[in-house]
Amino acid sequence: MSADGPVTVPPFPPEYRASGLLLHVTSLPAPYGIGDLGPSAFSWVNLLHDAGQHWWQSLPLGPTGYGNSPYQPMSSFAGNALLISPESLRSDGLLSEKDCESHFPSDFVDYDAVIPFKVRLLQVAWKHFKSGNCTDLRPEYHEFLNKHEHWLNDYALFRVLKAKYDGAYYLDWPEDLVQRRPEALAAARLELADEIDQVCFAQFLLFRQGDQLKTYAHSKGVRLIGDLPFFVSPDSSDVWANPELFALDNRRRPTFVAGVPPDYFSAQGQLWGNPVYNWDAIRASGYRWSIDRIRALLAHVDAIRLDHFRGFAAAWHVPAGAPTAQTGHWVSGPGADFFGAVSGELGGLPFIVEDLGIITPDVRSLRDQFQLPGTRVLQFAFDGHADNPYLPHNFVSNTVVYTGTHDNAPTREWYEELPDYERQNFWNYLKRAPVGYPDAVPALMDLAWSSKAALAVAPLQDVLDLGAETRMNVPGRAAGNWRWRVRQEMLSGSAFEWLRKLTETSKRSGASAGSQEGSLGSESMSVAVSRP
Questions:
Q1: Cβ neighbours around 286 below 10 Å, total
Q2: Strand partners, 275
Q3: Per-residue pLDDT tens for 163-206?
Q4: For a Cys-Cys bond, which of 18, 105, 155, 333 suits 510, CB 3.0-4.6 Å?
Q5: Using an 8 Å Cβ cutoff, are 119 and 102 in contact?
Q6: CA nearest to 53, candidates 446, 376, 449
Q7: What is the 8-class DSSP label of residue 518?
Q8: What span, in angstroms and rounded, lies between the C-alpha atoms of 329 and 318?
Q9: Structure confidence by residue, pLDDT tens digits, 412-442
Q10: What is the CATH number of domain 16-241+373-524?
Q11: 243/251 Cα distance (integer angstroms)
């Protein structure tokens, strides 16, 4: 692969065929308790390159709060400082080898140990920088401060105030800070000036490392897919600094919160609790904050997965304080007007849309109006209905197919827990006799790679054929998520040679497939399924 020539990003042209892997940065085998943007990330890019992969998809990269969920970041603009590489800081002269001495488990993230360790390292790095080390970084640092002033000052103050008040929800701070009265903010900035500067410095280090990684990935022909949550965290600098953009009362408390209505899986629906948008105010500003939010992520990635895409058509609003989501109602989103404004600003729409869940005709129409590639998850395909949209013969080419996502069980666990009739449907669709789970994972990947979808993606867990203990997230489970890490020795086996051969056989070179596309399998399969 090479970085030369035009870069293809969504929407994908009909002849485009490529593949990639889903792995959150925190899951990389870095030596300091959590994956980061240092040497292990560069090695991962090399591995993708050698295996013929053109895309690396990660989860949201923002600073995590409650539950360490990347989907509840404390800012839409800042990055997660836990991803800063101590090894890179040593190379910069900001840390010594002794500063970095530590021992952490290698197969999961122990956040209770990693967070104070990383906080201490960043304090040491700031002390060294402030005392005169690394003077060559100073012009770059001041340029960073000026460039990101529109969000960085509020975010840094938010973080140090949160630390001052022992992590309390910002609505529980003193009222003059909740209401952002100018004299209170000025006094806080003066009192906490050094801590604020330290937060800003950490963001500088993180962005610098991210820029270096993106440049290197491009040199290897690897493009990056980021992930943008639709809603923002209720306890975030986004809401605190921009209350007019959300449905809040005069005490800055949400009047409505986000969720999804009752369905087959939950009789009470799901109550997420995020504040909902005041789209009238956002629209009146020309969608400035929303576009800035997208532009901020695109500085680090090449394409963006839009989480909960259906919210742009309509979102489920639940009255604040309601015990369940049953009393909610649909409220129209910004629709085509939003994507027209974004396209005008960015010159295109490099998005992959997460169009899962309750998808109505207006959602599909919005997706197709702007030629946005949708998402198809093969684990949802084998219910016995020939018109199931997740069956490959129902795909259009401008699609991204996944074996599973961060919210799904690894394919091995999925297959082991399948009802018998769905297992039979699976093997019937493949026109193969059932042979058991050792062959199920590569069979599902083969189905994804051979489909007509422009882009095929699998979680690393599926490439390595790992089981339930490696699941990244169980929706609805409050604790124990986002912890899995891959061990270094897992990345040196034959699985990546197999992946390279699968990619070559499937003609997923990241270029035109020409007349080959029509012969690649799944779209011409007959649907032989059984019902329970």
A1: 12
A2: 257
A3: 999 999 999 999 999 999 999 999 999 999 999 999 999 999 99
A4: 18
A5: no
A6: 449
A7: G
A8: 7
A9: 999 999 999 999 999 999 999 887 667 999 9
A10: 3.20.20.80
A11: 10
C-alpha–C-alpha distance, residues 420 and 434, integer Å: 11
Residue ranges covered by each domain of the chain = 16-241+373-524
Q: Which tokens belong to 380?
A: 């949802």
Which residue's structure tokens are 């994507």?
339
What angle (nearest 5°) sits at the alpha carbon of residue 242, between those of residues 239 and 247?
Answer: 65
Q: Which of 157, 161, 91, 89 is nearest to 120 (CA)?
A: 89
Residues annotated as catalytic are: 307, 354, 407
Using DSSP, state whether 474 is helix, strand or coil. coil
Q: Chain-centre distance of CA 293, in angstroms?
A: 14
460 φ/ψ sector (left φ>0, alpha ψ -120 to 50, else beta): alpha
Q: Are 60 and 229 in contact (CB under 8 A)?
A: yes
Short-list 241, 272, 269, CA closest to 256: 272
pTM to 2 decimal places: 0.94
The three-state (H, E, C) secondary structure of 327-361, written as one string: HCEEEECCHHHHHHHHHHHHCCCCEEECCCCCCCH
CB crowding 386-416: b at 16 or more within 10 Å, else e: eebbbbbbbbebbbbbbbbbbebbbbbbbbe
